[in-house]
Design goal:
alpha+beta; Aminopeptidase; 3 strands; 30% strand; globular
Length: 82
């Protein structure tokens, strides 16, 4: 087996398949947010694990309200206004 470094973007598909195999990918590399802007949407929101908030903030989303739990994992509602 050969282990090589990869970017975080390259891990997204595998990460998503392991954690949420029955859910669609919403953020990816920002493409969806760009598309929503082009289509005239006013806001976007999603639930983000507390440990991943910085990732979502890098796309301009901000946490709203108090954290809550899903399957024992703390989450925040993350929002982006366009």
């Amino acid at each position: 087996m050969k282990i090589i470094p990869i970017s975080s973007a390259q891990t997204l598909a595998v990460h998503h398949q392991v954690l949420w195999p029955d859910k669609c990918v919403l953020i990816g590399n920002g493409y969806i947010l760009d598309l929503l802007t082009e289509k005239g949407f006013l806001f976007f929101w999603c639930d983000a694990r507390q440990s991943a908030c910085a990732f979502y903030q890098s796309f301009g989303l901000t946490p709203q309200g108090a954290y809550f739990y899903k399957s024992g994992v703390p989450y925040y509602k993350m929002v982006k206004l366009f």
